Amino acid sequence: xxxxxxxxxxxxxxxxxxxxxxxxxxxxxxxxxxxxxxxxxxxxxxxxxxxxxxxxxxxxxxxxxxxxxxxxxxxxxxxxxxxxxxxxxxxxxxxxxxxxxxxxxxxxxxxxxxxxxxxxxxxxxxxxxxxxxxxxxxxxxxxxxxxxxxxxxxxxxxxxxxxxxxxxxxxxxxxxxxxxxxxxxxxxxxxxxxxxxxxxxxxxxxxxxxxxxxxxxxxxxxxxxxxxxxxxxxxxxxxxxxxxxxxxxxxxxxxxxxxxxxxxxxxxxxxxxxxxxxxxxxxxxxxxxxxxxxxxxxxxxxxxxxxxxxxxxxxxxxxxxxxxxxxxxxxxxxxxxxxx
Length: 340
What we know:
With 340 residues, the chain is α/β, with parallel strands linked by helices. It contains 16 helices and 13 strands.
């Protein structure tokens, strides 16, 4: 198919220009819906008159709906986008990047969304939508899903499709609370995700910022132990790949520990363990929830991170979890391929 696309692109390049433009319009409507004509024109840096013409065409084809709130993609439009993605990704070199990154990191699967999250805030929504659809495609009856906290995971939960059928799915927080924002706590995200999946959830009423002694003590509590035992049965885990410095800040670590991590060149954190770029453990702490041993045993693990600043963390985590499903962006991908 790639050879055919290359031949067609040489013979009828103008057709592919229109093809890419309409794909971009559909993609941005999907990411930002509902969105008005003027906002879409500004987003794509094209004339409002051009958007109006394309909007009418896409509406006639049944690919978008238009109402007072703005434009929204239809089910047919979403199906078509999925069908066109392989062609678009080939035209823009994304498919090649996915194969290069997969080979470089030597991991199970790589999904790359266009753009750089550090330069374009809307890339987060694309990253989150892609992650939510991978997760939804991984679910089976009675799945136990673990999810960590953080703004990216909160966005993933929000972007999930509302399910009507009950499938016995249980969602649990994969680790104790971190940070001060309620909306980005693992407990909150687990509840939102369970609601979207028409499933149930369990909460873990414990903080990962407690002292090591306090964590040891609370883990003996029967109610906490009941939840942590369930967490160890997780068969699908969705987590944000964290930089060591940012996670140390969220865990409210002492300046002494922060300096220790810096001296040992820690670049990533996962479930209480801090790693250097080679995936070697340079520091570990007791946590509430999934530990590193549990993490390595989870059958389906989806790690999410975007932007060049996450490149080292992605490289490190890939060293310890070879069956990882990675969802990232062009920004992080190019940084890894060029520098690591």
